[in-house]
Fold this protein.
Amino acid sequence: LFDIDAVLDYLPSPLDVPSIKGIKMNSDEEVERKCSDTEPFSGLAFKVMTDPFVGSLTFVRIYSGSLTTGTTVINTVKDKKERIGRMLLMHANNREDIKEARAGDIIALAGLKDTTTGDTLSDQNNLVILEKMEFPKPVIEVAVEPKTKADQEKMGMALARLAAEDPSLYVSTDEESGQTVLKGMGELHLEIIIDRMKREFKVEANIADLKQQANERSTELIDLLNSAERYLALPANQTTCPLCGTSVLAEELRGRIQVQLEQLTTTRALLQTFKEAQSRLKTATDECGRINGELHQIAIERAACFVANEPAVVKPLGIDWPAQHLVMTSSVTGDPTSSRIATLAEQLISLDIDIEQERDRLQTRLTAYNNVKMQHDLLTDSTDKVSMLTTLFERLEKVYNLVVTKRHEFVQTVLDEIIDEVNALYEAIHPGEKIGLHRLEIDESKRSSLEQHAHFEDEQGVVPQAYFSESHLDTFGFCLWLALAKRGNSKQLVLVLDDVFTSVDAQHFRRISELLESEALHFQQIIIATHNRLWHDYYKTSRASAHLLKLERWTITHGLRPYEDLTLVNELATALIADQFDRQVVASKAGVLLENILDSLAAYYECNLKYKPGRSYTLGELLRTTKKLFQEAKIKRVKRDRNGQPIMPHQPENWIEIVLKDYHEKLDGIKLIRNEVGAHFNPSGNDWSDNDVREFGQAAYDLAEALACPQCGHIPKNVRSDHRGCSCDAKYQTRLYPMNLN
């Protein structure tokens, strides 16, 4: 508190400080900047610091105006733009992010690219260069060398960062020696720089060898003396020094220079010779010490061998090997030890031939022993392996028998579980026929066998292949496969049928298709690949959720040519919104769609129709016979959300009711469009306008949309308690009323 009071009492107010002076950019005109927030912005960068978290921090004193983050200022010294990103207010080791600073503030700016110490930052429209700080010239220089190659790569970057922070530090490279030279304000200054390189940038560096520098200075002196000698040898009589103007005696000076040159040259040559000899001596001494050390170690190892087992040919020498080994291990490498080892070596060399023969004899015995041992080990190992494999075989045989038994039991359990499902599927394809599956079982005496027992009329346990037709056998295999697929987590399965039916007629095809529609909810997806036109047309005229792909004729030029085929409803919808309205196509497709829908309804409700071979009824006949049905018919369906999920089906207000009478009456009034526009050439067809044809097509489409379930795409046909339902879950299915006509 006292310090703050002293500042207030004795230090001048910022308003009492004279205005800062500068010059305009690109001219020598002097300008002033007052310490006021209303003045144009100007500030001086007085320090640059490397920060491990934000990179470069530039400390700036704001002399006039204000500065906010996000603005762009001009570095008028370098004529570069700088964008103000992050602005910090520094409190010792703490920092505070700020958005605005005013005249008199000292702030730190992060991320400035081109600004260094002494640069001026100025408003873009009022450019000024403030007085730059002057730093004294360096008084000392040293050469620095990195300790490792890795340090060499990092040292340049570290020195560049330090030089940017400290304007009194100069970094250069000596052109002759290639050494990096640091120039600073004193030895302590440069020592701090080298220490910061080590602490902050992890760069190890040393000051270069002073002897090398002295040698370089000596070389420079010799060069200078040689130059002086050449100058004094000129024909003109020199009486004054060309540098300082002092009077000299040329002959006397020339003699003194020659004496100094001879002394320096001789001294340098002798010094170089001495250094070379000293280096060779050190190398030889080191090599001698290394060899003596190796010899000492070898002698210790040999003495230890002789202590453990002295050869018979060596015993006559009477050498006390334990004592020798003790002396060698307790002594250090040197001349006395080497002399002792040399004496022992001379004694042993005299027995060299005898020792060689003894070694060969022992080596032969060792080889024979190793061979016998290897064979013994192989025999023992083989015996152990036979015992182990015998035990393993017995255990594996038990495991195999257990697996086979359990597998047979499991498969038989699966077959027993699906027998009822197979018969139910079979009954859906062949209703009312007294044939079915009685039992499936595995014959344990055979591999990959399946015994099939069926019932045919009143006979039980018959073989299907002997009584069933090819069509019945095909559908029987399909039902067995489908029942197996449904077992377990079938919802994750994709069912693929590839031309599986080649022997069934159209009626059975229809039943198989209806069966697949009802079973589709048990699987992820059903894919049918077929060459049969019946199957394609069934799904083309159906409102079921089917995606049709058709392959045109294959050619070498074009290869496979797949294209997406549409159902009748989708084709009609596409034709109705086409840019070029084709009235004949719309009338034709709408007629085919209506005939298909009305024919199905007439069949479901057993409407009275005059018999015709092939059941080729006209649209008028079908509308007439279903008129009574449409007088009573209505559709009820539950509301669904955007994901297709039912919305609280237990509440009656969430069920939509659609009366179908109006659809029938509208179509009955314009039914002639079907033939007069969409089928045959008829002059009266021109009386129908495009709007009439479009209305006919739209009415057919609306009827199909009203009848079909938006979830499964089927027209309700399955008989329930008081209505007919679609293929969806019974709780949420689309309902068609009435169930039957009275």
Observations:
- Residues 422 and 481 are 9 Å apart (CA to CA).
- The mean pLDDT is 83.
- The chain is about 45% helix and 20% strand.
- The chain has six domains: 2-130, 140-208, 287-356, 371-481, 488-565, 567-742.
